[in-house]
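Checklist before submission:
- one chain only
- standard amino acids only
- sequence pasted in full

Submission:
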Amino acid sequence: MRYEKGIPIPLPARATTSKDVDPVHDLGEDIFITKDGFKPQSLTAKVEAQLWIHNETDTTQVVRFVNWPWSSPPIEPGAKAIYVPHETVAVNYVLGSNQKVAGSVLFEPWYDPNDPNAPPNPTAAPK
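Returned file contents:
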């Protein structure tokens, strides 16, 4: 578990490699560009938490959000780009060099697990 400034709940530990995430769907704030595409293919992440997009390929990559106004700067091999979402939104994204390589991320709000008025949230950090 980890904490980020402004978020009073614990977040999942950072993944350090694409081998640390489920290749299809995962919870957290790490996306990896691999020679086989994005891993995970879909992600559920928290609003206000830093989303890290890691480049595990041997070429510089750019990631472009399709339905949201953001594109990464060029991401060198072994480097990462960071995006901080401020709204609840589902975003589809593509690799700038090959738009057939695609993924999606759902940015959902975090809730204080001790707040009795918080809606049920199956992906909230554990108490």
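Reviewer check: Residues 2-108 form a domain with the Immunoglobulin-like fold (CATH 2.60.40.420).
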